[in-house]
Design goal:
By secondary structure, this protein is α/β, with parallel strands linked by helices. It is 41% helix and 12% strand. The longest helix is centred in the last third of the chain and has 27 residues. The N and C termini lie close together (10 Å). Quinone reductase that provides resistance to thiol-specific stress caused by electrophilic quinones.
Length: 216
């Protein structure tokens, strides 16, 4: 049975969050297509993981046999997250853009699971694992847009997930999500609606394909 690790990081509920709406659609289709599979849902907004501190950082670069009690405790928490990630056959991440980049809770999670010599570096223990990221944003930051140079979500996550960890990375990008709430963006509402429908369609298609592939 395949396992989907579903990670959300939006501070908003599903009815108010574009990233959660799309990850929720993806997960529901996955479960319909693969009812015997397992879904692990980690909500980083509701239950944030510890930020890396001196103990957890230095523990990642030293022999466990030499760890202090503080290092051992901090490292054990990192290992739990890493083992959960390694156990997944597929990963789904909701990554809304906050102040041009990912939420700090998601950054903290990634800091914990990126471990040289295990998940990163020559080992890459999740190499080839399919990872789908729903990268929602209030405006438009794609190629050719005025804010193209401010796109630090896909660029960063591509570097971490694909280059460092070796994941098979794919993005779904709902854009202009602030249009319905911002009067200055009123004329962009039709483009937002089209982007949202496209993202939901992509989530449905990708979830079906992935579930069928892993169930085969």
């Amino acid at each position: 049975m395949a396992t989907l690790l579903h990670i959300d990081s939006s501070v908003f509920s599903t009815d108010a969050s574009s990233s959660r709406a799309v990850t929720d659609a993806f997960r529901r289709i996955w479960q319909e297509q693969h009812p015997e599979g397992t879904v692990i849902h980690r909500d980083l907004a509701a239950q944030p993981v510890p930020h890396i501190d001196a103990h957890s950082h230095t523990a990642g670069f030293s022999d466990p046999a030499t760890h202090t009690p503080e290092q051992a405790a901090a490292f054990a928490e990192r290992v739990k997250l890493i083992e959960e990630l390694e156990s997944a056959d597929a990963v789904l991440i909701g990554a809304p853009m906050y102040n041009l980049t990912i939420p700090s809770t998601l950054k903290a999670y990634l800091d914990n699971v990126v471990l040289m010599g295990r998940t990163a570096g020559d080992a890459q223990s999740i190499k080839g694992t399919p990872v789908t990221v729903v990268a929602s944003r209030g405006g438009a930051y794609g190629p050719g847009t005025p804010r193209e140079g401010y796109e630090y979500v896909q660029n960063y996550l591509s570097a971490i997930l694909a280059d460092f960890l070796g994941a098979d990375l794919d993005f779904i990008v709902p854009e202009l999500t602030m249009a319905p709430a911002n009067p200055a963006m009123a004329e962009l509402v039709p483009l937002f609606e089209a982007s949202r429908e496209r993202a939901l369609d992509e989530a449905t298609t990708k979830a079906k394909q992935l579930a069928q592939k892993l169930a085969a």
